[in-house]
Specification:
Length: 458
Amino acid sequence: MALRLYDTRTRAVRDFEPVTPGIVTLYVCGPTVQSAPHIGHVRSAVAFDVVRRWLQASGHDVHHLRNVTDIDDKILVNADAKGTPWWALATAVTREFHAAYDALNCLPPTGEPRATGHIPEMVALIQRLIEAGHAYPSGGDVYFDVRSHPAYGELSGQQPDAMQSGDDGTAAKRSPLDFALWKAAKPGEPFWDTPWGPGRPGWHIECSAMATKYLGPTFDIHGGGLDLVFPHHENELAQSAAAGDGFARFWLHHGLLNTSGTKMSKSLGNSLFVADLLAAARPQALRYYLVSPHYRSESEWSDAGLAEADAAYTRIENFLSRAAERYPDVSGTSGLPEEFVAAMDDDIAVPAALGVLHDTVRRGNSALADGDAAAARSAYAEVAAMADVLGLAPNEFAGSGESAQGQVLDAVMPALLASRQAARERKDFAESDRIRDALAAAGVVVEDTADGPRWRIG
């Protein structure tokens, strides 16, 4: 079965073949770095990290770009409120996003272009649109003429005649539906000089210019959230197609993460910030929570759901640890189960893939209980390979034993567990419980198993 992906533009699941055999070009809309990342932002990062990992596991070299919008109205407003330069705020917030991506084990993109680093490319694209009759300057602004492009609306399914513009209806525009490619500078704002006067780019032109600069006029996949289909991606497609570029062959959009049935957003004040969540939960559990729904599904945040994700991840983690302890020669090198491959090739159906993974964990636990070394080793190899594809491999997370704190724990825990076991053997249960409770207060969980005591963080 070949990889099939749902394409928003054609509204169908289609066979995926890259433009260049063996190479996949993937552009994902990244953050506008106005303030700290919330959990909705990293759902996007995790969703497309899984897409990328599966493409790589399928033998492709993936050229993955994720942009940073580092100039925007909200960045200017927030920087002014903090009394800091706009560029300093954008840089600091970009670092916060990187920390969130790293904590959740997202592979770094192949490239991460910034909007402010690509003004010449944007100006050149705007000039092409003006020369082709699809854009016009007006009072220092430049607008895309929506009526000049008959295919406008093909991505979102909306028709211009039925649309209501969310713009300000300025008299400088020929039609209220026209959107800004370039904005004339206002007093005190940062600006770049252009043939139309000083100003800064509109939001939509950024991605068209950066995607085609690095991935070419036609590339394989453009990704983002469902909230970007209109107007952002619709406008990207229109301006790029009007300029003569093939642009993205597949459009992938992930579902949104809601709180109490409402889309999570900073403007609504219902954001759950990643730093706060990671202070209360393991990154492994948070990633599992974000991975487990189908990427196109909407999902609802809940603390109970996060606890269930932690429990499910712990079952994977514990099996891998127990198998490696029982059979130190186990290897993560293995082919993936056919059912797992079929699920991932079916539009990245992670829920079904996780079902295969947990079935294999149960089979592996049974093999450990029965002393079936061959079956346990086989299950270990398959579970490790599947976890790696989903970005859930325990040893890939920061602090999984490689940090200084992890090294201290690895050195100290055997002695503590031996002391506790000695207390149990002499029936000094008060001392045994004291050691266990002290470890629990420090965030270390001790579990007594048939193979002896085991410990984990959280």
